[in-house]
Amino acid sequence: MKIGIVGTGNVGSACAMAAAVRGSAREIVLVNRTRKTADAVAADIQYGTPLGRRLDIVAGDYDALKGAGVVVITSGMNEKAGGATNRNDPEGRLRLLGKNAEIYRDIVPRIAGAAAGAVLLVVTDPPDPLADITREIAGHSRVLSAGTFLDSLRFRIHLGRHFDIDPASVEAQVVGEHGTSQVFLWSSARIGGIPVPALCEQRGEKLEKVRPALEDAVRYANIAIIEGHDASQYGIGIASARICEIVLADEHAIIPIGSFQDSVGVFLSLPSVVGRIGVVKTAEPAMSDEEREQLASSANSIRQALDRIRKS
Ligand SMILES: NC(=O)c1ccc[n+]([C@@H]2O[C@H](COP(=O)([O-])OP(=O)(O)OC[C@H]3O[C@@H](n4cnc5c(N)ncnc54)[C@H](O)[C@@H]3O)[C@@H](O)[C@H]2O)c1
């Protein structure tokens, strides 16, 4: 049970830390452009491991990824460095695609060559079109975009806060792009089996009044974090570690996550059964007409961003 993590900046280090603390694997290998950084992160985390489950965490070159069941790719420019922190910019994280696609064209052949049997989990922004590029280069379909798994957790947190309920008991999903065009499935959001719109009514609230602020808090959560702390890293670290666990244990858990959708020709997130081969099956959730239209428009945003860099 081995996890590879490529890139040991803020996000890669947080993924490693979360996987170590959660006991997600027996072995973690860290690969970074600057080996010294990967060595340092591995050593730092290793010193805490006698307090948890047995773990070997080491740094290595790409060939050390051999035998990994899953490789988390976090290399690339982040939102702050790439100027993607303006809430009024509809492009959002898609602004980072040109630069990060260049980096992916360089590193994915090496990752896919070394970790031939692994599921590749794309975390770098924007993860959906980068997963497309990864799939093309790797030549197989065991590719996931971290997608809206984290956005869905954020949605559950904010709904839990609003209704004063443990977010673990909130069922709610964000689908589509991990970006500004993401789609909130209000029509199927439930707490204790009660639809969220009905819960609002019970409290004398109008859903249309609750929606904008709550959606903005989720859609721009990364920007709010970056305004206080330079990079968003810990939430995605925990979310990525959980995805690795699902893959390594072939759990067949169902979570919102990005995979290639034949029907629209791009990667985007839908609730999906995840196991050792990546996405085993995608479920089409119940959606209102409005949500369905938003999902089509989200697919368009991703497609247009890919078209722009393929033409350039
Ligand atoms: N999917 C998500 O939910 C999510 C959440 C937070 C951040 N992110 C994204 O994760 C990525 C990493 O963010 P970060 O804060 O860790 O950035 P960072 O600047 O801290 O780290 C960048 C990493 O990329 C590597 N890198 C940079 N240029 C490279 C190149 N040319 N070749 C090989 N490696 C290179 C660096 O060595 C470093 O390991 C960003 O794209 C960020 O936007 C995604």
TrEMBL record:
Domain of life of the organism encoding this protein: Bacteria
A GO molecular function held by the record: L-lactate dehydrogenase (NAD+) activity
Chain sites annotated for binding NAD(+): 7-12, 100
InterPro entries: L-lactate/malate_DH (IPR001557), Lactate/malate_DH_C (IPR022383), Lactate/malate_DH_N (IPR001236), Lactate_DH/Glyco_Ohase_4_C (IPR015955), NAD(P)-bd_dom_sf (IPR036291)
Keywords in alphabetical order: NAD, Oxidoreductase
Keyword Endoplasmic reticulum applies: no
Domain Lactate/malate dehydrogenase N-terminal: 1-141
Xref: Gene3D superfamilies: Lactate dehydrogenase/glycoside hydrolase, family 4, C-terminal, NAD(P)-binding Rossmann-like Domain
GO biological process entries: lactate metabolic process
Domain (Lactate/malate dehydrogenase C-terminal) ranges: 148-309
Catalytic residues in the record: 178
Alphabetical list of PANTHER family matching this protein: L-2-HYDROXYCARBOXYLATE DEHYDROGENASE (NAD(P)(+)) (PTHR43128), L-LACTATE DEHYDROGENASE (PTHR43128:SF16)
UniProt similarity note: Belongs to the LDH/MDH superfamily.
Function recorded in the entry: Catalyzes the reversible oxidation of malate to oxaloacetate.
Protein's recorded name: Malate dehydrogenase (NAD)
Organism: Mycoplana dimorpha
